[in-house]
Amino acid sequence: MEDQLYTTTTQCKTWSFGPSTLATIRANTNAAGTRSIKRGWKRARVEASTANTPLATTPIPSNTPTPVPTPSIDPLSVPDPVTLTPTEELTLVNYYMLRMMAMSDGFGFPSSVKATACVFLSRFHLHHSVHAYHPKHLLTTILFLATKTENNYLSTAEFCKRIPKLTPEAILKYEFKIAGGIGWDFEIRHPLRGADGGIMELLSALASPNGDPGIQVLKEKLGQDPIRRVTNAAGRMKAHLTKEALVSDVYYHYTPPQIFLGALWLADKELAEGYIEWRFGENSTMGRVVKKKKKDRKGKDKVTEDDAAVEAPKAAPLAPKLIPTVIACAEMMQKAQEYEKFTVDMLKKIDKKLHQCQNPQKFLGAGSPIGIGNDVPKKPSEDGPPPEKKRKAEEDLFGGSLHGN
Amino acid sequence: MPSITNSTAAAIARARENAINRGGDADEICPVCKSSRYLNPNMRFLVNPECYHKMCESCVDRLFSQGPSQCPVVGCDKILRKQKFRKQTFEDIQVEREVDVRKRIARTFNKRQEDFPSLKEFNDYLEEVETVTFNLLNSIDVGDTEAKIIAFEQSNKSSILQNAAKAAQEQQFALAQREFEKEQHRKAKEFENEIEAEEKRDKAEHKANLLRALEADNPDAEVAKVNRLARKKSSMRRENQERRARELEAARNAPAFQFMANLNRVAEEAPPEKFDPVDGYDETNRYFVYRDKYESPWLDDYQKDKPTLAGGYLFQQYYERAIFEAFSGVGCFIEDPPAVDAEGEPALQASFDTPMIDSSV
């Protein structure tokens, strides 16, 4: 039933992809984002060529590394900006994910909130290019949404107190968009609780004096103090689960138990291998030890043990298939560690590129910023029309007043 | 008497003027010859389903007796024939036209549900027919639609005829059935009357007998005899009535024709699949068995924590959930589906990729 229930979740149905599918989706999203940038620039170019006074409206930062347009420049001669590649997009998203983790830790939220927020961010940008939505504007909203999702609600007022210059409006502005962007699939199956469960079971099995042969083998493997070793590994595993597992793509490629085993593999390879062998190996009793033990306690003899063994479904052991999967998962998480090593320069370069893409007005002298985050408060006229229209529609619930009445 | 004629003429002119101005009573005046009902109370208005322009009977006679000719209404170039003129059934001319169109469509598209393998296909067919009807009614792609109808008519000639014959037959059966029911009803009523009359007669007879018995030498014995006789008679009568009522009932329930019972019976469908309330899920866990107690050092503090315990926190539930999640999905392996890859993806893209820039363009 366990696997069957997992297959009914949206995580399995909507948000699980093989590697090539995921790459294709990312490429498509990137292409869509690039298209939207191209369109925005085209529009800006048209506006710039129609505007006759580029002198007055061109605030040009002089130290930009991009071709500096002189006030008299022909807007048609400025080349289209170089858009980001899917890899660069991913790098940027992951950088902001790390930022969000730090933010969550600053709030002191439990790891489930942190993990949910990260998955939200990742999923949102899976289908929405950073060209269209700069992640820096979404972080607080996503974190706030995650607190609500994970039953750790903090009022917007409280939330804003902790971050300088943050207003409730700014949080709520994109909330609907994000909720829709993640397909309203709020429930995320994290490996965290499952990891607790696995460790719990392992510890209990190790602690009990008479276990099945599998656990005895594992005990011998773990050396002097198996309990201590497991506890230490669990600590490291938890760290992996709340960092590498979120930054990498493992949530798309593996199921929560597999991620948990992958993290355990990273933390203590020998332990993870032994654990898998014990639970899913050739002679695994699939945890039916307990049943026997209970019966033993009740005074029944060994015959029941055989019964239980017969009763257990003799399916092919899962371990041969599971171990390569777990190793691949662990490797993917290992690879994700390099995101932390990214230099600020590199990120700055990406962000600068994105900045150029999203702000044609700075380079052409006309046009409006692209992407939702770029509303400059000083120039309401530039970003004016859309909010104006929206507000009007909201205010006049039953349409505008009739003229002539 | 010129003065009278003058005043009459003026009155007629006034009435005509009024009728025209009032608008609502415009149907009191023939739009072609402008003669009003005021002058000719027997005036009948006719329409031709070619163009639905209304005119009075005399106009029709006058204009179309010589053979087909153009509609007299300005701007209408339809050629009308006299025998096609008929009385308008509905007040609203649009409704009249719709009914005509629907009649015509129903004659051609007379397929039945039995002709289709499933209800869904039948419904699709109905929708297509409705589209054709709508197009004709609202003059959308009339040429195409007509061509389509003719093509359908050509290719389905035999089945259309068959279905029409079938429908006629059914109508006959229905008529026969109705007749039969009426007859049964009449019989039942007759029977009822008969019973009533019989009862009345018996009562009167019993009374007479009683009187006669009282007159006799030995009244008590005679009265008892009469009463016994009456009881016997009434029970016999009741029995008789019940038997006849049963017969009538049986006759009423039996169909007029033997095949009527089979006529509209829907073919027996395969019995629906057995309903499974849990949709195939069971409670057996493949990978684990719950224990009562687990070693969980990180919960030890809470296990002694009074506020936690007083709040009703059940550690057992946490254990169960944690253990379940440790194995829920461990046997699912996510891979690239080669077939779905091509199809599933555009759908995903379509549903999610809606950058705001696009919408503001």
Explain how this protein is built.
The complex is a heterodimer of chains A (405) and B (361). Chain A is an all-alpha fold. Chain A folds into 2 domains: 146 residues, Cyclin-like (Cyclin A, domain 1, Orthogonal Bundle); 149 residues, no CATH class. Chain A has 22 helices and no strands. In chain A, helix 4 runs antiparallel to helix 5, helix 11 runs antiparallel to helix 16 and helix 15 crosses helix 19. The longest helix of chain A has 32 residues. Chain A is elongated. Chain B contains 13 helices and 5 strands. The C terminus of chain B is likely disordered. Chain B is mostly helical and 361 residues long. Chain B is flat. In chain B, the strands form 2 sheets. Chain B has a 3-stranded antiparallel sheet. A two-stranded antiparallel sheet of chain B has the order 3-4. At the A-B interface, helix 1, helix 3, helix 10, helix 15 and helix 17 of A face helix 11, helix 12 and helix 13 of B. Chain A: InterPro entries: Cyclin-like_dom, Cyclin-like_sf, Cyclin/Ssn8, Cyclin_C_2, Cyclin_N. Chain A: GO terms for molecular function: cyclin-dependent protein serine/threonine kinase regulator activity.
